[in-house]
Amino acid sequence: MTKIDMSEEILSAKKNLGLNWEEIAKKVGMSPVFLTSAALGMNSLKKDDAEKLCEILSLPSEVALALQAFPYKKWDQTIPTDPLVYRLYEVVGVYGETIKEIVHEKFGDGIMSAIDFSLDIDKEEDPKGDRVVITMNGKFLPYKSW
Amino acid sequence: MTKIDMSEEILSAKKNLGLNWEEIAKKVGMSPVFLTSAALGMNSLKKDDAEKLCEILSLPSEVALALQAFPYKKWDQTIPTDPLVYRLYEVVGVYGETIKEIVHEKFGDGIMSAIDFSLDIDKEEDPKGDRVVITMNGKFLPYKSW
Amino acid sequence: MTKIDMSEEILSAKKNLGLNWEEIAKKVGMSPVFLTSAALGMNSLKKDDAEKLCEILSLPSEVALALQAFPYKKWDQTIPTDPLVYRLYEVVGVYGETIKEIVHEKFGDGIMSAIDFSLDIDKEEDPKGDRVVITMNGKFLPYKSW
Amino acid sequence: MTKIDMSEEILSAKKNLGLNWEEIAKKVGMSPVFLTSAALGMNSLKKDDAEKLCEILSLPSEVALALQAFPYKKWDQTIPTDPLVYRLYEVVGVYGETIKEIVHEKFGDGIMSAIDFSLDIDKEEDPKGDRVVITMNGKFLPYKSW
Amino acid sequence: MTKIDMSEEILSAKKNLGLNWEEIAKKVGMSPVFLTSAALGMNSLKKDDAEKLCEILSLPSEVALALQAFPYKKWDQTIPTDPLVYRLYEVVGVYGETIKEIVHEKFGDGIMSAIDFSLDIDKEEDPKGDRVVITMNGKFLPYKSW
Amino acid sequence: MTKIDMSEEILSAKKNLGLNWEEIAKKVGMSPVFLTSAALGMNSLKKDDAEKLCEILSLPSEVALALQAFPYKKWDQTIPTDPLVYRLYEVVGVYGETIKEIVHEKFGDGIMSAIDFSLDIDKEEDPKGDRVVITMNGKFLPYKSW
Amino acid sequence: MTKIDMSEEILSAKKNLGLNWEEIAKKVGMSPVFLTSAALGMNSLKKDDAEKLCEILSLPSEVALALQAFPYKKWDQTIPTDPLVYRLYEVVGVYGETIKEIVHEKFGDGIMSAIDFSLDIDKEEDPKGDRVVITMNGKFLPYKSW
Amino acid sequence: MTKIDMSEEILSAKKNLGLNWEEIAKKVGMSPVFLTSAALGMNSLKKDDAEKLCEILSLPSEVALALQAFPYKKWDQTIPTDPLVYRLYEVVGVYGETIKEIVHEKFGDGIMSAIDFSLDIDKEEDPKGDRVVITMNGKFLPYKSW
Amino acid sequence: MTKIDMSEEILSAKKNLGLNWEEIAKKVGMSPVFLTSAALGMNSLKKDDAEKLCEILSLPSEVALALQAFPYKKWDQTIPTDPLVYRLYEVVGVYGETIKEIVHEKFGDGIMSAIDFSLDIDKEEDPKGDRVVITMNGKFLPYKSW
Amino acid sequence: MTKIDMSEEILSAKKNLGLNWEEIAKKVGMSPVFLTSAALGMNSLKKDDAEKLCEILSLPSEVALALQAFPYKKWDQTIPTDPLVYRLYEVVGVYGETIKEIVHEKFGDGIMSAIDFSLDIDKEEDPKGDRVVITMNGKFLPYKSW
User: What predicted TM-score, i.e. pTM, was given to this entire model?
Assistant: First the structure.
């Protein structure tokens, strides 16, 4: 079973059961962001988590195996077109060098890891319009010299 | 005076005075991220802030005028090469559709604004290696139908 | 049911019934432009509107569900080839910086939203050749500093 | 004198005189959008208009000659990065096929001319936030068969 | 029936009947170039012409309907690879600015329409090798100011 | 002297003398299209023609030498942006396969040469709007087998 | 039968019969390079040669017809990735301007035809490692002026 | 001295002395193709050859040093535009897979080296038009397994 | 049987038998890297090795034949997106010119062969986190002059 | 002083002193690869190392400061053209998925760091031709779930 078929099975079961990612993630005991990324084929789950997810959604063991497979992370569009995703790309374009300046000032020469990394999405209620809060948390990796 | 010349003047004065962005930003009374992005030519400053910044760095009024000009936000590399900036691009590639799923689940059809938006960068101390924490906060904009 | 299948069903039913977008939109009580964009899979409809559209076209409830799904807005060709669509791209190329100048002059630093946005298409009769009138109306979003 | 030098001279004179495009356009007797596009080098002016503009800005006759030269309309970035200009590109991506449907329904097979064309930009005041109104008006050109 | 299926049906019927485009075009009463472009899905035919073409090729009415549909003109390769088509692209590259100079000298600022346009292909016999003669004829469209 | 400097000298002399390409070409005894393409650096002239052109424009012998140099034909924009030049690119996109069909039908498998080739531009007066007539004439080159 | 199906049939028959291109080409009476290029769909064969090839490989007449069809020469990868093919691309990159210099020195302004052209591939035995010898032979086409 | 300056010096001296590549190469005792490629900055010369070349052209020792520097072989245009160079690119596109078939048939799995490689250009006189003969000779490198 | 089908068969058999590449490679008597690259369709195996591999995995002789076919090495993404593969691309970007400097210093003008080449991957245990060690070993090929 | 000026100064001083990277690196007490990458502007040096390097090459303190600046790692060509560098890109294309398979088999889901990373280049003498040995050593970073 490919990751693509796996995702379709999960999305379809989720819809039929009327569950949302937050509820599912709570039951599995993980962050909704990580769980969703695994369900969409962009991360792998450990055996236990994969099986728990399949149990919740009444999906067969093949799906659990597909969830454990290590993905080839691939995206098609160099520049994303969907407005929600594009705005994130735009933020990288507008603030990329600024982030570089500030990280270097605070940490020295190095980068924020995208592997030892977590991401959360919250809703901040606001009378002038609710706000999306995205928090990225990655280990600082200093450049090694040798 | 172009934004490029302005940035060079600011970076040079900052280096000579031995100041960092945090100190300068505190004196101006702004976030270091926004101030840096304006100094790098990616945002404009209000008159007062521009003048205060020039006062701190002993820069002429031309720089203050250039800081107030509305920038044409332009980046050259469709896919950034610098590892620190690329990792941010990679995060958008890996988690873009996940963010879309979760935002739609929490807010409905719409996007996070990249205009009514702020960004903060913090250091989280950790014995296993300090962590970079980037927080994006943007107004949710629902799609309008008509 | 994918958005692509949904669009095919709608276009086919519309053709068989001999209706045009203006007539359908009037019955649903929406703008023909927004309704068409939803039928082509580029916007989502609210439950009531989706069901009304399906009723008019005698389409099953699956189509109504697909119309309510939040779309991933994707276009394939970086530069469109169809002459009608290309001319719009050309207008952005030729007048983009001019629009930037005038909007900044009238409103300050910020953008026209493409989300809190509406678009209308009218026919202006003219003995020297009728004219297409496209009106875009988007909320001005000022850049926020912080 | 190249169009690039010409634009710099005009922008500099305009700034020094503290004039805006609306005021200048009124004096020349043209639309501010067209006048700005000519000043930015994307359109040519007739002799009289070019000379009137130079008179208003106290610019030499070379500038007037450069304004009359027929431009090579060139833009560098296939996909614009500046958020204000990108949103216009996005509108073409999201609504391109919709506009095609509606124009074909109202006019038959053909296109909206981008040559026999005008463009206006207005401000619509709104307590929930002012709105940018962009109106494109182009002659419908039916495809010719032979 | 899509334009692609339509083209296949027409090419197959044409081959089986042993007809060539010149003969078919003569019977329909149109130029062979325009008729071929419509058969390949790049232009639409009026109802009468579409039906006459289907009669000649003994094709069903679905094909006639597909011929009347307004096409989305799409080409895949930014730079064509087939040598015959590439040479035309090369001519535009080598002579593009020359054509611009001469057209502007003869007509003023404006363009040759590609919509109010016709194209003919002739054979000029020559003892040193026959020659292909391609004639493009498009309405001059002067830039409008406003 | 580079071809770029050469072109600038020629364009400047032509402007100062108030001549147009047709007049110059007549005096040299060549087609205005070919002469313009050589003046813009896209073709080379024979010694006599180069010297005659320099005589007419009172240009030094360096320019005549540069005109005789064999050019590296280079264009920067894969897809041209100027509307006049883009329309020619569009014609290749829309009619490329049609031209291939008709040429193959009339001549067999082969191409129209872009080297043993000439191009003319004429004005066809028309009360509904004058028309641009571009005629390409290239030797048919049959594919050789071996 | 498409060129792609044709190629598959030929490659499969060739494998089953245990023949190689040299043997087949000898029997048909052609160069192995041209015959292979036709079998791969990049050139067309004359009726006799196509039928002889099908006789040798015991293939049906449809294949012979497909071999006679004039191909649309299309390649997918702007820069080839296969190392053998890439090295040829690299040779063009490294030696392109050198070839231009030498050809112009020997022949004047013009090109080597890729249509009136043949290509041979030979093996040169060498104790230090055999060598591949590729010989291109194309008619010189002088640029025409007019 | 950069390779670019070196090339300019050599081309200029060669022109002033009225020498051609064949004559120069004969005097140095090398192939004109290799010598030209080194003069254009795409290959390096051994000390003796570099000095001999500079002696012939009366150029200073800096040029000889620049000729010995190992070049970074760089070309700007993914797809060359100059017709002479493009035809070579086209040959790779049309015959690439054919060359692969024949080389594999004659030599097994491997490639023709572009490093242990030589290239010659000859003129074949022909009453129907002289022919350009390009011969590539590269060592066959079999893929190694391990 | 295509290389793609072959790879699927091998990966499926490997999974069902619960074998890993190291074990399989040991049994075949080859390096796991080369064997994996052949199984993924990027290299060909000799007859004996191909048959031994199929015996181990109980696969039919068709798979053995497909393993012996000489591959067309093709990759889709100019810049790989998967983080593991991208990091290798990044290493080439960051250290490419450095490697060039050092190789030229140690060996003279030439390259490291990617054909007469082997690659190994090892695990270096480290209490601060295990390390991946990739060793490339390629024959130095000096540029030939002629 | 920019990194580009810094590199020029270092390369020029190194040439004049007749030193090579190995000798310089030994004196500084670092790996020649890392030192070269810093000299070419792709890595930063610690204060002491920067000053030692400048002492060895008799360069002013500005160079030492430029060596300590944190670089923006930028490369221009998506696909490198120089044959030595291209071969490394090719290795990533051919063996990328193989490396992914083997690393995942040995380490689990994760990547080899390109930051906590070192690279060595050695010469392996071989009577059949010396060999280049490139060793990459990067920390394995397992994907984190949360």
Answer: 0.95
